[in-house]
Amino acid sequence: MIWNGLWLTSLLFLTNLESLSDNETAIYAYPEIGCGVSQLSRSLLERMIRQQEDGKAHHVYEFVSTDVSLVCLQHNRDRDAAYIASLPDAATLSYTELNVVKELPACQMHKYDAILDKGTCDTFLFRSKRTQKGSASHAPLLKPLLNNVHRLLRSGCKAKYIIISPRSKLKSVRDFNGFVSVNRTKMSTDLLGDAVLVKGNAAHKPAHVFIYECTRNDSYQPDKDEPFADEGLTAINDEQSAKSVKRPSKNFVAMWTFRSRRDSMDSSI
Known about the structure:
Keywords: Signal. 30% of the residues lie in helices and 21% in strands. It is an alpha/beta fold.
């Protein structure tokens, strides 16, 4: 299924990343974690190839969709084989096995400009809720996930972790010290057509979906530094946020910017 609103939003963030580079010919590597049988990466690649056909810049795009399920990966390879074979030399789409909460292969470290997540963070939050005991304030399964996301992202380029979620609050993401900032964009699901955000939940369609744009904190050291801040974030109001963060379009509302040096708790995210 082509996720119209979702890939348009993701495309906006990826295009914004490209604008940070002065190089007219650059290589951009974008993995999707926990892809399942999604066509999100293919849809984004198709759109970005069409977008640059009339432009002056000629970038190289490397989309890598990852999952732990070999069955899903083979399904995707078979489904997209003809499309992959037709791609120009400056574009690649591949499906690769990756367990994002286990030790990562060295070849994947510090490689990517942005990581796409449409459901993986939500899945681990759900599993943590079912298995978590005691009064831990952060989902335990999100520590290895977020630390590995940090390891996958490149340094020195304001690399992004882009989460698409029906959840209005992601406390562990908000408090993760591996991000220097977290921006949340609220979008009406009317833009999504018949897309289903969470597997097994097709009967329930929330009124809104949230896009979290998390910028890598290059000074953070996974498994050495404390992963989560006990203190909350300082929220910037809508008027200030509009000045500091480019609003995607008139269809997107309620954007907040958060800083890594937190002075007070904001429970809205």
